[in-house]
Write a structure and sequence with these properties.
Blueprint: E1 2-4, E2 27-31, H1 33-44, E3 50-52, H2 54-63, E4 73-74, E5 89-93, H3 100-109, H4 111-123, E6 134-137
Parallel strand pairs: 3-5
Antiparallel strand pairs: 1-2, 2-4, 5-6
Helix pairs in contact: 3-4
């Protein structure tokens, strides 16, 4: 298990033209030594780390240095151009437009691909938000 105490900033819409000017509030995370060792061993053995939810993704990416080691508070904002250090794949639901979370998904899958998936989701009447339908991104 990994824990991120999510703040309201995670869900606050991005209202700036340049995403680099969007400020994320500090959030506290915890990764047990046992979990950190499992994650590091997985990467070292050439296996994939798959997160369930953007919260676990943001937690492990916050804790990672170039060698995948752990630490404490984060203001991480993942958007296109971000180079993932630990995450290889993600299971997540469909997020709101202009949210930090749709930007995270776009950083992983590419904005054009995500927008095409969202068009399909709207057309097929998928459910959005926390209790909606999910997607697997690799």
């Amino acid at each position: 298990p990994v824990t991120l105490h999510v703040g309201l900033g995670t869900f606050r819409p991005v209202k700036v033209d340049d995403v680099e000017h969007h400020h994320m509030h500090s959030e506290f995370y915890m990764i047990s030594e046992e979990s950190a060792q499992k994650i590091n061993r997985t990467k070292e053995n050439g296996h994939r780390v798959i997160c369930v939810g953007t919260t676990s993704c943001r937690t492990i990416e916050s804790a990672a240095d170039e060698n995948g080691r752990c630490s404490g508070w984060t203001e991480i904002f993942i958007y296109p151009g971000y180079q993932f250090k630990i995450l290889d794949a993600l299971i997540t639901n469909f997020h709101l437009p202009e949210s930090t979370l749709i930007m995270l998904v776009s950083a992983l899958a590419g904005k054009e691909h995500v927008m095409a998936a969202y068009e399909e989701a709207v057309k097929e009447r998928y459910r959005f938000f926390s209790f909606g339908d999910a997607m697997f991104i690799r």
